[in-house]
Amino acid sequence: MEHDPAVIAGVCLVAEKAIMRAVDLSVGTRNQLQRLHPLTVGVNCSSPSVDMYLTIDAEGAVSVASYREEAATVSLAGSWKDFVGVAAADDPASALINGNIQISGDTAPLLRLQTVLADLDIDWEAPLTEALGSVAGHQLANVIRAFTRTSKSTHQRLKRQLSEFILEEGRLSPPQAEQNAFFSAVDDLVLRVDRADSRLKRIKKRLAGLSG
Amino acid sequence: MSTQDNTTDDTTDFGFERVKKEEKAGRVREVFDSVASQYDLMNDLMSGGLHRLWKRFTIELSSVRPGQTVLDIAGGTGDLAAKFSNLVGKDGNVILSDINAAMLSVGRDRLIDKGALNNISVVQADAQFLPFEDNSIDCITIAFGLRNVTDKAKALASMNRVLKPGGRLLVLEFSKPVSPLLSKIYDAYSFSALPAMGKIIANDADSYRYLAESIRKHPDQETLLEMVEDAGFVDCRYHNMTGGIVAVHRGIKG
Description:
Chain A contains eight helices and five strands; from the N terminus they run H-H-E-E-E-E-H-H-E-H-H-H-H. Chain A starts with a helix and ends with a helix. Chain A has two domains: 5-118, Nonspecific Lipid-transfer Protein, Chain A (2-Layer Sandwich); 125-187. Helix content of chain A is 63%, strand content 13%. Chain B is of the alpha/beta class and 254 residues long. Chain B has helices at 21-35, 39-47, 50-62, 79-88, 101-114, 152-162, 180-202, 205-217, 221-230; strands spanning 11-14, 17-20, 69-73, 93-98, 120-124, 137-143, 163-174, 233-241, 246-253. In chain B, the strands form two sheets. Chain B has a seven-stranded mixed beta sheet with strand order 5-4-3-6-7-9-8, with helices on both faces. The longest helix of chain B is centred in the C-terminal third of the chain and has 23 residues, at 180-202. The radius of gyration of chain B is 17 Å and the shape is globular. The two termini of chain B are 27 Å apart. Chain A binds chain B through residues 4-6, 8-10, 12-13, 65-70, and chain B through 50, 52-54, 56-57, 60-61, 63, 239-243, 246, 248.
């Protein structure tokens, strides 16, 4: 199904504005993006069928477009679910490489872009001060900073404690080393089965030759 | 002789009226003189801001690169020209052109306010008789302007003449909604709400009634596509936007 170009242009506009706002509020990010120029990342989503191109210009500004004739530096193709999976993953770079998304082109700048985005540190103080005045804006920004710090460390602590509970208390999952040893043993078994299978085929072939 | 846009040897459409060809430019000028100062505000109100998205997609289709020359015909208040100015960079050139001096004046003031005049030239010109050398322009855009041109075929031929081989033409214009239901809603909106808004905001209901009428008299998607092809363009296609209320036609000079 073909989508209305005006709707896609609207989505691109909103995405571009949001990205640029975040970039402008994060100290140093624009300079880091400038170093990635020229870079165009093409996102070809198959279901729903939507193409988007994210381009970084010489000033480090990011533009998002729905149509482009020149080839992108790197293109990512997959379904909407695949892209959501990557965005929600703990390690998006690893999820991108190991997932169902097909990547073509130069992946090095894409990984650098992923690092820049991961380091994005948005400081809300400037827009809050503009909207609420210097005293209230500063206080609210402090609250947001404290909340962000607390929620980040709480999330990490919870993750660690949950992992410890699963491993130590509940014994619901074997330790990582044990898992690795098991996976290696499975890999080894697969290799041995493959070897045995090919040996069997060779013997069968030889037997067929003798009887013929 | 009659062309596909209802223009005969001596008369043409001015909204639902038939007027002499030599009268149309003057009548259109009166309309745009009247609406120039409120043009952008009215566009935002009438389209609910959608005209910005239609223009944004048109700019994407242009595939303009740094160093190129872009001609924006009927560029009016200069919103497309400002965007092209960033795309072509300091080595490129954007020509903002309009037949109407009042619209150009508003456009030039806006561009000065945005600090975007370094690579933009402002030219008052009739789209039928473009005052530029043959094969000199990389990309031509005409957004919501073609329906006001007296002889559209002549204007398209003039655009073909000044484009470089391989250069592209983009015509963004109101068109025919693809769904009958949307068409009815759109008609009701155009002939009742639009003049009322024009009366309240710009104190000029007649000009906005003309805009609605001129949209209905403008060729539909397929007819305009044929006209673009007849003017000598190749690889012609169009994209409907917002259910066909607007379409952008693209042609390449062969």
